[in-house]
């Protein structure tokens, strides 16, 4: 395969040839069976009555709703030709095992398949020196001995006669993906590539990496597509020091990396991987390092860092493209990382990134050396890119002391550079050399790190998790006038059950507004829809009620009688919450933008961020990442109820964002209750429940008012012992 040579965006030609095949390139001759998957259409057709939107099923195949997958067997050619225990883990089976599992799960078949191509030398020159490219080019004709001698000039690298074409193809595959996303041919996607890239530097191979795939792609996005802000999220367990070096002076690329560090004792053992290294010159503040100083980090540690470090900065940065250096050596079972994040954690990390850049996310494989873990993690990442609901996050929802220490330090180091951290009580920087988390008193709610790794059965069980439950649809309980909307296909329009005045009074406790005819009809639809959600016939839904306070009370009572064990109610705006539901142990009530509450009225399960300012965009975004999501992840609800009061004050975009992100802690089961049948909002929320990307970016950063920021910070501090994911410091 040659370089592009003709036309600037080869993938455009590819798509216009009509080869946007779903399934036809399925197993690509890799020699394994392609099992039929529980396809969406099959499952949906069981839900009557169907209300199919025009041509929506087609939308996944190309265009902004589609997910691209790039994989080419040519990248399995490179392999270690001599004995070297350090390099032996980076072998071709990493790709074949991963791709086999994607096909087995039916995920590869749901993606738009894009061809890889070899990057041109000009493209390699976006990051690498011509001299270095010439050195790698020369490996094509070298003997094994010569390859071995050359490899010794670098740290943890091997070469093979196929290294040059493979490494060019890894770059080219990444560029194909970025071009497809930036031209709108697809919405997001993943490239399965070898060799990996993030350790590679301008003049050097390093850590199995030859050319820096993601760094070249970021430069390409800037130069060829004119982007001004690119976010790189490096969730591989090693520090991408190569990528950091390329962009350390560059404020147009925000580079975030977490990495096993152990106080600089873990490879590559660099001082520049610590939290206080933040970039240089104009690039100060645009390098974000989160060192893990212990092994055994879990789901809660990873999600906490996303909520309290990455997301605030990323929202403020407002990227036009998100590139993920997607290494899965940060997953459980990996011999390099020694961490304990389970595969579904990567679904959650992906979900948390999708609201950025209108969902323009490109995941590019880096490390990952436990074949089962790698394959499973890639499946969960791709599934989330495809819009499937994320599975519940397992494990104790509390970060460990060591990760809290890192969170505190990196927030303090970045507070001078980011308004979203500046107003916070970030606490002091702890000296890395003197402080070592184990000595201090145990913090309530924080878990100490488990160092004993339970191998064998537990790990096998975690990694062989069955395919996720079939996607069950979305239901609408709205007035009949919504049939003209552009709604997701296979959406259930709830007909409702007949509710008598007496029943209505029983549910809503003599609320006269709710016994009017219109309200009775709405109540009938609401009860029927909620029943379907509670019995698993429908995953999520939207209900409109003219008497939303009463409907909220009904939904909460119905949720309790219907078996919800932990019910999270996020009530936005002024809503009346009946006394008997306030301190029910099974309901956690989060009221945003309602009447100011006295502190005496507050309790463990009743959290209020009152006042109209609470729903202003800047304040709300801060509340979402620092309060709402941490509380929700700590509570682990089995049902979420989002209630929008009359004139609740939130922008439609923020309601969509809340809807998208709260699907994480609840693993999908959600009911939205609205007072106003605002049709564009109903339509947008139906798509948000379906997993579609947000239609626009969150926009230029708006900061919370100092008063509101203080109120949020105080609330988080007050409640952090009840809800441990709220913690941002060890002090
Ligand atoms: N036991 C990537 O994951 N060996 N590269 C470290 C520590 C080098 C990892 C030895 C690891 C390189 C892309
Ligand atoms: Zn790695």
From TrEMBL:
Cell location: Nucleus
A molecular function (GO) term: deacetylase activity
Natural source organism: Phascolarctos cinereus (Koala)
A single cellular component GO annotation: nucleus
One of the Pfam families matching this protein, by short name: Hist_deacetyl
Domain Histone deacetylase: 90-384
Gene (name only): HDAC10
Principal location: nucleus
Family: Belongs to the histone deacetylase family. HD type 2 subfamily.
Protein name: Histone deacetylase 10 isoform X1
